[in-house]
Amino acid sequence: MLVKKKEWQQFVPRSLEEVWQFFSRPENLNAITPEDMSFEILTDIKDIPMYAGMIVQYRVSPFPGIKMRWVTEITHVADHAYFIDEQRFGPYALWHHQHHFKAVEGGVLMTDLLHYKVPYGPIGVLADKLFVEKRIEDIFKYRVKAVEKIFGF
Fold first, then answer.
1. What pLDDT, on a 0 to 100 scale, did the predictor assign at position 47?
2. pLDDT per residue as tens digits for the range 49-65
């Protein structure tokens, strides 16, 4: 299976500082993740600013009845511009997620760029077509609504 690429954009009518302060804190990931994923951060990261090399461990239920550990590393951080998280252990053969923030007139344009690959060869290709890709799309649709609610617009 080839690596899949997904991209999403969202405008947030807030200052770059306010948006960056929220998204650059891994503990806020809970607030933008669907409840049915039973997302739990296992690493004590409260009030720790994000930095390159930060390892964050989670427990997540990507599908009903399936619980797994997920470990990501923040590999790059450019203050108020972007950060990248990469899976080190978890459900994907590859997970490389770029989070970009750009000040524009009236707010911030956020761009998520995700490259991912499902493991297990042909079985993974089928799983991706049947439910993984849709689940990823649903998670990012949820995030749009959660961000609107959090930032009150």
1. 84
2. 899 999 999 999 877 78
Q: 153 falls in which pLDDT band (50, 70, 90)?
A: confident
Three-state SS string over the chain comes to: CCCEEEEEEEEECCCHHHHHHHHCCHHHHHHHCCHHHCCEECCCCCCCCCCCCCEEEEEEEEECCEEEEEEEEEEEEECCCEEEEEEEECCCCEEEEEEEEEEECCEEEEEEEEEEECCCHHHHHHHHHHHHHHHHHHHHHHHHHHHHHHCCC
CB 153 within 8 Å of CB 45: no
| List of residues 6+ apart from 64 with CB closer than 8 A | 36
Q: How far apart (Å, rounded) are the C-alpha atoms in residues 27 and 80?
A: 17
User: What's the predicted TM-score (pTM) here?
Assistant: 0.93
Q: Which residue matches tokens 């503990």? A: 27
